[in-house]
Amino acid sequence: MQFIRNIMNDIKKCIRIAAKMRNWWRRSSKAARITSSVLLASLLIAWLCFIIFETVNMVSYSSRYSAKLQNSVLIQREKNAYSDNLGNKDNEVADNKSFEKYFDKYCKQKLDKSTVNHVFWKHPTGGEYPNLSGVKVSDLKVNVDLKKQRVHILANGKTVYTMIMSSGMGDSTPHGDYHINMRGKHFFNHEEKVGADYWVGFIGGEYLFHSVPTRYNFGEYIPSEGMKLGKPASHGCVRLSVADAKWFYKNIPDGTAVHIR
C-alpha cells in the first residue's frame, strides 16, 4: 500500500508542476515563450542525438564482438581438427606457430583477418542450379576434370553447371567411364574416422561423389577439410561443397554417365 501511496504522491507533484508551468506560460511574454521553446527544442534534439549516437555505437560494438567471437570459434575448431590430425587426445596445440602456418596454408587466411569466406564450402560453387526436370537420363552426363578440379554437368550435350571439387590425392581417383548406381544420405568410415553427407556412388560403394568430410554425425562438417575444396584432398572419392553435394544427390539419377579424365 505504501508503494501505491508513493506513486500517487509523485503523480500529484507532477500535476502541480504542470499547473505551475501552465500558469507561467500564460503570464509570460511572447519573447519568453519563444526563448523557452527554443531551449526545450535544443535539449530535446541534443537528447535524441545522444540516443542515436549511443545506439550506433552499441550496434557497431555488437557487430565487432560477434565477428571476433566467430573468428575465435573458428580458430578453436581448426585447432581441434589440427590436434586430431596430430593424434593429440587433449586437443591442445603445443606449437602455435606451426598451427598458424597450417591455418594460413589450408584455410587461406590470416588469423587476424575477416572470416567472411571461411564457409564457402557450404554453398553452391557454380551459381544458380539448373532445372533438369524433363531431361532424360540418357541425355545427362557428368564430366570430372581432374586437372582443373571441376565437375561439369551436361544436359543434351551442353554444360549447364560447373562445380568446384576435390579429387583423390596422388591421382587416386579412377579414370574412365562409369555410371551412377547408388546413393545415401550419410556414411561414416570407422577405420579412417571420417564420414560425409549426400553420397552418390559411381563404382559401387567404393568411389563416391559426396560432401566435404564430416565427423561421426550428419552435418558435423570438418572446416579444415572443407577449406581444401578445389585441390586434391581425398582418398579417391570426389568431394563437393555441401550445397553442391545435396543438389547432386537429389538431381543426378542412377544410370547417369560419368566420365573422369
Automatic annotation (TrEMBL):
Record pathway: Cell wall biogenesis; peptidoglycan biosynthesis
One annotated GO molecular function: peptidoglycan L,D-transpeptidase activity
Active site: H210 (proton donor/acceptor), C237 (nucleophile)
Keyword line: Cell shape, Cell wall biogenesis/degradation, Peptidoglycan synthesis, Transferase
The name this protein goes by in its record: L,D-transpeptidase
GO cellular component: extracellular region
Gene3D superfamilies linked: L,D-transpeptidase catalytic domain-like
Signal peptide: none
Biological source species: Gardnerella swidsinskii
Domain of life: Bacteria
